Amino acid sequence: MLPEVRALCEKNGIQPERIKSLNDKKVKKARYVLYWMQASQRTRFNHALEYAVLAANNLGLPVIVVFGLSEDYPEANERHYYFMLEGLEEVEKSLKERGMKLVVRRQSPYLAALELAREAALVIVDRGYLRIQRYWREQVARQTSSLVAQVESDVVVPVESASAKEEYSAATLRPKLQRMLGRYLKQVPESFPCQDSLSIDLESFDVSDAQDAITRLNIDRAVGKSRFFRGGATEACNHLEEFVETKLDAYGELRNDPTCDCLSNMSPYLHFGQISPVEIALKVLDSGSPGAGAYLEELIVRRELAMNYAFHNQAYDSFEAVPDWAKETLAGHRSDKRPFMYSLEELESALTCDAYWNASQEQMRITGKMHSYMRMYWGKKIIEWSASAEEAFNRAVYLNNKYEIDGRDPNGFAGVVWCFGKHDRAWGEKPVFGKVRSMTSGGLRRKFDADKYVRTVERLGELDAKPES
């Protein structure tokens, strides 16, 4: 951290623990301060952006924001790119209002950052937890001559402050987080740069119209955009407002009932960094709602357990990450007769004997988001219908990453590995699953009107089939 802006950071809700130097380079004389925006694709409650502005003002320099638009991001397709571009369209306008230029480069993010870092006094970057995100930052920190500072902005409590190790379960992480919430749940006021960067001439890929931009990209078109979720900070805030005003009170009671529209729909927006978990948590707390506690358990404890998992376990996306006890019990039941066996193509097309599972797969395929409770049932049944637990794991990751807007995410990987016993305990022995928790269609029917859920998804399919107006 720049010593001169330390006090300003604390005043502006940027705790020093969020800031980490990624190399030992020095601040140099140059044209601008560069904020490499990658994970935190927003201008509100963005600790990294605000730190860049404070640092630039201290140096008397403008701020340039760069975004690297990789067209071959692993497992990303048109659905993901469309949602992201809708957000970037809004980011560009918002930055312009504050006198900052957004430069989008159609290349690998770290190469885009390296190019613009040549004329940067220092580089500020937000934080990512996945292998590829960490690689990008390591490459820039190693190859540039500029100081590179990472500012963590997509969790409430910085991951290393929360825990120095991979946590066993939510029960072990929860008390650590709860002790720190008072420090990190702070407003992050917006600052304006003392120098405008809009007149700096830098080549940029035009994202002012997401619909036009998507046509100019060479990307995987296997899955089209969702007609049910639009990207961007405004949409995220609209969903949050509606949730707090009309759904939060009943959240604790109805969150596991997919026939009730009681969820916040924040996960796609959190995945792309289009809204801050700090902003969400503060709004939920300010509501005084009886459902606040249950929701914050999901937003902070469960979500940040996933970040802890991805950060501390480099096998986060493979069967290797399944706990030893679960591997052992699943292996012991490898030869058990499966009630049904389905190919990946049959699963992807929702052609199983289980109407409830088919509905969950269809909900994900159609909208880009499956109800969180059905996501657990969906994963458990894939185990039951696959030749091995390893095959089931790979299938669940593949389908989740392909269709979910928030796929390819620590939360998604943690959700899949949970189905195989991670962050859970051993249960009574059962065929196929051994001591790993299982779920049944009868269990669904006891909890809610599962047939109503099927009808709800059928209506979504009818809406999706209608031509866009």
Low-confidence stretches: none
Global mean pLDDT: 97
The helix content, as a percent range, equals 40-55%
Structural class: alpha/beta
Can you tell me the CATH topology of the largest domain? Rossmann fold
Describe this structure in words.
The radius of gyration is 23 Å and the shape is globular. The protein has three domains: 3-154, Rossmann fold (3-Layer(aba) Sandwich); 155-190 and 232-312, Serine Threonine Protein Phosphatase 5, Tetratricopeptide repeat (Alpha Horseshoe), CATH 1.25.40; 319-465, DNA Cyclobutane Dipyrimidine Photolyase, subunit A, domain 3, CATH 1.10.579. The protein has 21 helices and six strands. The mean pLDDT is 97. Helix 7 (170-184) crosses helix 13 (292-312). The protein has a six-stranded mixed sheet, sandwiched between helices. Helix 2 (47-59) links the parallel strand 2 (32-36) and strand 3. The chain has 469 residues and is an alpha/beta fold. 49% of the residues lie in helices and 7% in strands.
Q: Helix and strand layout, with pairings?
A:
Elements: H1 6-11, E1 19-21, E2 32-36, H2 47-59, E3 63-68, H3 78-97, E4 101-105, H4 109-117, E5 120-126, H5 131-143, E6 147-151, H6 159-162, H7 170-184, H8 210-215, H9 233-246, H10 251-254, H11 267-271, H12 277-287, H13 292-312, H14 324-332, H15 344-348, H16 355-367, H17 372-384, H18 389-403, H19 410-419, H20 441-447, H21 450-465
Parallel strand pairs: 2-3, 2-5, 3-4, 5-6
Antiparallel strand pairs: 1-6
